[in-house]
Amino acid sequence: MFPTVSHFIEYLFGIQVPLPFNTFGVFVALAFIAGYWAFTKELQRKEALGILHPIKKSVVIGKPATSTELVYNGIFGFLIGYKLVYALLNYKLFVSDAQTVLLSVQGNLLGGLFFAGLFAYWDYKEKGKHKLPQPKTVQVTEHPYQLMGNLIVWAAVWGFLGAKIFDNLEHWDTFIQDPVGGLLSFSGLTFYGGLICGGAAVIYIANKNGIKPLHMLDVGGPGMMLAYSVGRIGCHMSGDGDWGIVNTHPKPFSWLPDWLWAYTYPNNVAMEGNPIPGCSGKFCNELPLPVFPTPIYEVVICFILFLILWKIRDRIKLPGMMFGIYLMMNGVERFFIELIRVNSKYTVAGISFTQAELISSLLFIGGLLLVTYSLKNKEKNAAY
């Protein structure tokens, strides 16, 4: 396993390059990039078809930087410098425990003040370059795909919050022992929490900018499936605990690699299992018994599902249909992977189930209802 990018570089090239990046975080970033690409392509395609339309906005140009803008830029610059300079001056600590460095109150005051001044001055000079003797209001055209920068920020912030909240609800006993640590930790993220909260934020912003909810949902279906597939690569490569149940059964096919059938996740970032003999350092644990490598199964399955969604997107004309199909695919995939995956279980009226099984079932039902609604309202939806 490769808990950090440094471990991966050392595996490939045999050299140790101390970098403050964990493997899971890098693949989360790559997942957002993949989603950004798919979302942008769909927004451009739907605009070309006349389904989505650019909007006109009034913008005031030629104004100098206001005091409020300078203050906001100064505050942002201070936070960047306060942490960045401290991290560079304490680089070994930053490499070994970036989370503690970033989320603690420790920082470098001089670095913060320097960057605060730098950011405020930069804003002042940039606005000064375009200052007019008399500011004026002009009409600008904003295309749907140009919203992606704003949408991705909202999706990242609210998606992370939702993923943390749902994960802590799923592991309530651990959360109540250390609620602050549970909320601030970068580990322990629940996909469905991120999907629900991040998706709601995206729909809100899109609707404010003239993109109706059903169209935005349809745009997101293929992109979310692709992003999930990419993100799961990080889960597998880092060994973040999203693995399956113990699997000691013999391989069904002799040609199948051991790591695709049963894996012990050595050096996992979750630091679960028994100590590895001869290993020293932070990530020196290995599961005592091999388990199903469920993240890699989801990587393959969800990428295939993405290809299917991408292939059929031109044929689907009814608003809501694409997202309904996505929900059904997502629900089925996750429900069945839960059968061989380690997870916390709830028991209600004698029925045992996981949080993901419950939500995936609801998503499948919701997707089925959305597809049914689209088919029953063809004429109404055609003009939507």
Automatic annotation (TrEMBL):
<feature type="transmembrane region" description="Helical">
    <location>
        <begin position="186"/>
        <end position="206"/>
    </location>
</feature>
<dbReference type="InterPro" id="IPR001640">
    <property type="entry name" value="Lgt"/>
</dbReference>
<feature type="transmembrane region" description="Helical">
    <location>
        <begin position="295"/>
        <end position="312"/>
    </location>
</feature>
<dbReference type="GO" id="GO:0008961">
    <property type="term" value="F:phosphatidylglycerol-prolipoprotein diacylglyceryl transferase activity"/>
</dbReference>
<feature type="transmembrane region" description="Helical">
    <location>
        <begin position="70"/>
        <end position="89"/>
    </location>
</feature>
<feature type="transmembrane region" description="Helical">
    <location>
        <begin position="318"/>
        <end position="337"/>
    </location>
</feature>
<dbReference type="Pfam" id="PF01790">
    <property type="entry name" value="LGT"/>
</dbReference>
<feature type="transmembrane region" description="Helical">
    <location>
        <begin position="358"/>
        <end position="375"/>
    </location>
</feature>
<keyword id="KW-0449">Lipoprotein</keyword>
<comment type="similarity">
    <text>Belongs to the Lgt family.</text>
</comment>
<keyword id="KW-0808">Transferase</keyword>
<feature type="transmembrane region" description="Helical">
    <location>
        <begin position="20"/>
        <end position="39"/>
    </location>
</feature>
<keyword id="KW-1003">Cell membrane</keyword>
<keyword id="KW-0812">Transmembrane</keyword>
<keyword id="KW-0472">Membrane</keyword>
<feature type="transmembrane region" description="Helical">
    <location>
        <begin position="101"/>
        <end position="124"/>
    </location>
</feature>
<protein>
    <submittedName>
        <fullName>Prolipoprotein diacylglyceryltransferase</fullName>
    </submittedName>
</protein>
<dbReference type="GO" id="GO:0042158">
    <property type="term" value="P:lipoprotein biosynthetic process"/>
</dbReference>
<dbReference type="GO" id="GO:0005886">
    <property type="term" value="C:plasma membrane"/>
</dbReference>
<keyword id="KW-1133">Transmembrane helix</keyword>
